[in-house]
UniProtKB/TrEMBL annotation:
Residues 176-326 form the Lactate/malate dehydrogenase C-terminal domain. One of its GO terms (biological process) is tricarboxylic acid cycle. Pfam families: Ldh_1_C (PF02866), Ldh_1_N (PF00056). The active site is at H193 (proton acceptor). Its EC number is 1.1.1.37. Residues 30-172 form the Lactate/malate dehydrogenase N-terminal domain. It comes from Paralvinella palmiformis. It is an enzyme of class 1 (oxidoreductase). NAD(+) binds at G35, A36, S37, G38, G39, I40, G41, D61, N121, I144, S145, N146, M244. This is Malate dehydrogenase, mitochondrial. Homodimer. SUPFAM superfamilies: LDH C-terminal domain-like, NAD(P)-binding Rossmann-fold domains. GO terms for cellular component: mitochondrion.
Length: 330
């Protein structure tokens, strides 16, 4: 059983990798990575350089980005790579982009929560979102920078201020929570992206799995704590970077497929949502030519999972409010 589950995920990932190398391209996209020189940014940019749907990969950072771009440009795949260093070159990096991926900002160290990153990362995401709102307001934004529960509301408020807000185009990338499931099954993870706000819907796993309640509880807590496990294992040297780069590249590829008109592309992400009383919430989403096409909602869930969602609400709403206040009252 375990082998079957593992191989299902491996097959899905192998499909993603072969898609990335595939020569059938319906879209010549410009993709910008903001924070391209970081622990996530570098492997993410490498994976995106292999994606044949991308014709221009623009790498922005406040350090080292011209060097990273020069290095990647020696890989013999289609995408032209340009490096952009510092705020003066941000506009050129962003203008004309179809998708802007943001892994810029400081990561956690052991003992830190994602919320502890707020003070530094809120400003970084605000300024990058403001540049996108001005120079490429129709771009899809995929935010990796933590705390995602607050950085997505921050970006949304920035777009509202600029009068270019479209809730269907701003996504918090929470798919690492899906990837890090200990059993490697494909499991929707809903809610937010920190601690108790991460809610795995084990009852909706494919292939279906069945656990005694005690094991379901242990597995749920392990998934909620998966990112923290990596932070602790790296013992001060950073948080999940390689797995996050893969999750980010996979999410970007799904978005590019949907933008190119492919149907039936579904990903979980943290977006503006009416599914619960929280203004932003992660659920499975059908992606389309304009970003979010249809929110597929929570579906049928167990009482146990409903209670997890209820327990997540106070923290989630607080994180969202904090992000909104940063722009509205800051
Ligand atoms: N969504 C998730 O599941 C998930 C998982 C892991 C990490 N993260 C988050 O991703 C972020 C990046 O993590 P990392 O390990 O790559 O960190 P890192 O410190 O290795 O890299 C961050 C990069 O951002 C750059 N940067 C800083 N300020 C910038 C600015 N104003 N404009 C552009 N670039 C700027 C830095 O120069 C650096 O290259 C962190 O906030 C981390 O918490 C999210």
């Amino acid at each position: 059983m375990l082998f079957r589950i593992v191989s299902t995920r491996l097959i899905q990932n192998a499909k993603f990798i072969s898609r990335s190398f595939s020569s059938t391209t319906k879209l010549n996209a410009k993709v910008t990575v903001c924070g391209a020189s970081g622990g996530i940014g570098q492997p993410l940019s490498l994976l995106l350089k292999l994606n044949s749907r991308i014709s221009h990969l623009a790498l922005y950072d406040i350090v080292h980005s011209p060097g990273i771009a020069a290095d990647l440009s020696h890989i013999s795949t289609k995408a032209m790579v340009t490096g952009h260093l510092g705020p003066d070159q941000l506009r050129a990096a962003i203008e004309g982009s179809d998708v802007v991926v943001i892994p810029a900002g400081v990561p956690r160290k052991p003992g830190m929560t994602r919320d502890d990153l707020f003070n530094t990362n809120a400003t970084i995401v605000r300024d990058l979102a403001d540049a996108v709102a001005q120079y490429s307001p129709k771009a899809i934004i995929c935010i990796i920078s933590n705390p995602v529960n607050s950085t997505v509301p921050i970006a949304s408020e920035v777009f509202k201020k600029r009068g270019t807000y479209d809730p269907n185009r701003i996504f918090g990338v929470s798919t690492l929570d899906v990837e890090l499931d200990v059993n490697q099954v494909n499991c929707p993870v809903v809610g937010g992206h920190s601690g108790v706000t991460i809610v795995p819907l084990i009852s909706q796993c494919t292939p279906p799995v069945s656990f005694p309640q005690e094991d379901r509880d242990k597995l749920t807590k392990r998934i909620q704590n998966a990112g923290t496990e990596v932070v602790e294992a790296k013992a001060g040297a950073g948080s999940a970077t390689l797995s996050m780069a893969f999750a980010g590249a996979r999410f970007t590829d799904s978005m590019l497929q949907a933008l190119a008109g492919e149907e039936g592309i579904v990903e979980c992400a943290f977006v503006r949502s009416d599914e619960t009383e929280a203004k932003y919430f992660s659920t499975p989403l059908l992606l389309g030519k304009n970003g979010l096409d249809k929110n597929l909602g929570l579906g049928k869930i167990l009482d146990y999972e409903l209670n997890l969602i209820k327990a997540a609400m106070p923290e989630l709403k607080k994180n969202i409010q904090k992000g909104e206040d940063f722009i509205l009252k800051g």
